[in-house]
Amino acid sequence: MNLSRRSADADLRARARQVIPGGMWGHQNAARLPADYPQFFSRGQGCRFWDADGREYIDFMCAWGPMVLGYGDADVEAAAEAQRRRGNGLNGPTERVVELAELMVEIVPHADWAMFQKNGADATTVCVMIARAATGRRKVLVARGAYHGAVPWCNPYPIGATAEDRMHVVPYDYNDVASLMAAVDSVRGDLAAVIVSAFKHDFGKDHELPTPAFAQAARALCDTTGAALILDDVRAGFRLHIGGSWELIGVQPDLAAWSKAIANGYALAAVTGNDKFRDGAGKLFVTGSFWTEAVPMAAAIATIAKLRATDGIGQMQRMGERLRDGLARQAGTHGVKIRQSGPPQMPVVFFEDDPERKKGWLFCTEALKRGVYLHAAHTMFLSAAHGEADIDDALIGTDAAMREVARQFG
User: Fold this and answer.
1) Exposure string for 92-115, b = 16+ CB within 10 A, e = fewer
2) 342 near 200, Cβ under 8 Å?
3) What's the pTM?
């Protein structure tokens, strides 16, 4: 199939360039991807979606993370539609906000309270504001290479931001206890927070799970200094553990930021926190006209309930392992060396001796031609809708793609 000829996609791109700066913005701008990747899509169902020209793909990006149960999940859509008929954005919240806050407090061990926003950058920013309000301090420790949102205080791309926006952000190296301690020492007396990702998932780099020593050191340093330990669980939340990703290593944060998978594609984010930071949270004026919309909250309640009832996280892990095992076999068969890292339900795949990712993007574009949507540099995602047949279908496409990498680079 010749993916270079996309009449509908090409037409939409041309129209978009007239009315949208650059034709699209941010991480969903297909100009950042090889030319064969579509920019526009028409629909999704389960773990599959269709581009504007009607081509079907098995999706391993899951809308960049939000799709966790499957596109168009019947239970989530029924809950959302029932609430939509009653009302969505009113002069204030509906009872859904209380129900969802109660649910978050129930399932998240560190949580004594919850607040809601719209996207991940909202949540991480609110966490930082709460930490500063509670401590009266300014400095926030952020791991080098970590992504916590596209807003000035943490955006890794400097265009449009100033040095002053980040003058109170201090770097350290993830999983490096000595680096973390040195960063704490450098801001002694003015440390408001240490923010940590659920695991090291820097763009274009091998992923690393947090070591127990690092997580325990971060917890101890925050306990000693009175700073907030903030867990950015925006990307990983509800895929690794229902109660928060660091439950897997037995370390609890003071504050956590959630989004992406919380409502199976409906726009919602959350901050959870413990009682130490309740008063700080209560002092803030943070708001948004859409932050208390009821439909996404109804969707979130249904999403969390179904993940718990169906062992959705276990399903994602099993299917991720099936995919990982299959790719490893294919690499061995074709004599290609790859590195797979990250949790199975959030994988990355890199090729050895591929600093410019030429092998990686060749693999992905060849898979794309065969209806498998992958990414050569970003964290990918499994959903609970991925089943054995879907993984096996995808592996047919990746086998042909791996063979092409071997042919061109062997």
Assistant:
1) ebbebbeebbebbeebbebbebbb
2) no
3) 0.96
